[in-house]
Amino acid sequence: MPRLSEVDRHRAFGLFQAGLPISEVFLRMDVNRTTIFRLRQRLHETDTVSDRPRSGRPRCTMQSKDRNLVRNYMNNRFFSASASSRQTKERNNPRKSAKTARRRLSTPGIRARSPYIGPILTQCHRHQLTLWAQEHAAWDRIQWRSVAFIDKSRFCIDHADGRVRVWRRSGERYQADCVREHDRWGGASLMMWGATSYNDRIGPVFSTIEGL
Questions:
Q1: Residue at 122 is within a domain
Q2: 190 in the same domain as 134
Q3: Is residue 56 part of a domain?
Q4: Could you give the CA distance from residue 41 to residue 174 in angstroms, rounded to a whole number?
Q5: Ramachandran region, residue 148 (left: φ > 0; alpha: ψ -120 to 50; beta: rest)
Q6: Structural domain for 186, as ranges
Q7: What is the DSSP letter of 178?
Q8: Does the CA dihedral 176-177-178-184 come out positive or negative?
Q9: Nearest alpha carbon to residue 10 among 40, 49, 39, 51
């Protein structure tokens, strides 16, 4: 038996107000007697013919599973949601969907974003960079006029870099386990060079590099 529409509920409500008994109402509405009885009971209890508030569909994962999911992604930031769905079991289903994994991670503010691509840095490199920053933190404008900053970008020619996502919170873009390190040398590529100083700008300059 299909559920009564909102229009039919108000029609039944009008018949109740007219003083008709339940036996007469369900015959006129051509519905089950129990449906009309429950509708009148709801009207007496809530003064409305609308459905009662519902809790919605129950969660397919327990809170302990959700905490374990977040912990796994914090240990492996580049773990894909589809791979997680194949490993994590639901309460009543051996597998959960990748969409469910994304919803559980979005609750603590974790979302998939494009990772920052940075050069491979050892602990020695990081130490030297920190020392350089500390030594130049107090430089004034006159001292910086004699400095030129040079940078380069590499564009792959023989293969695509691919699409990679990292699970992180806002403000974690440059966190060590959220950075995708890669070797800038390897495979045919096009290099673009440029430099800038206080009073001048050089570039861009292009050069082709064959794979090593």
A1: yes
A2: yes
A3: no
A4: 61
A5: beta
A6: 117-209
A7: G
A8: positive
A9: 49
Do 95 and 126 belong together in one domain?
A: no
* Span between the terminal Cα atoms of the chain, in Å: 73
State the pTM of this model: 0.40
What is the token pair recorded at 144?
Answer: 């910086």
Return all residues near 212 (Cβ < 8 A) that are at least 6 apart.
185, 186
Helices in 30-114 by DSSP H: which ranges? Answer: 33-46, 63-75, 81-87, 98-106
Token reading at 181: 């390190």
Residue-wise pLDDT for 107-144, tens only, equals: 778 888 888 877 788 899 999 999 999 999 999 989 99
- Residue with tokens 């995708």, as numbered in its chain: 180
179: which 2 tokens? 């950075």
> How many domains is the chain partitioned into structurally?
3
Is the same domain home to 97 and 124? no
Interhelix angle for 6-17 vs 33-46, to 10°?
Answer: 80
Q: What is the CATH number for 10?
A: 1.10.10
The CA-CA-CA angle for residues 191, 194, 196, to 5°, reads 165
Residue 137 pLDDT: 92
Give per-residue pLDDT as tens, 55-84.
Answer: 666 666 777 778 888 888 888 888 877 776
CB contact set of 183 (below 8 Å; sequence gap of 6+): 120
- Considering the domain architecture, whether residues 131 and 189 belong to the same structural domain is answered as yes
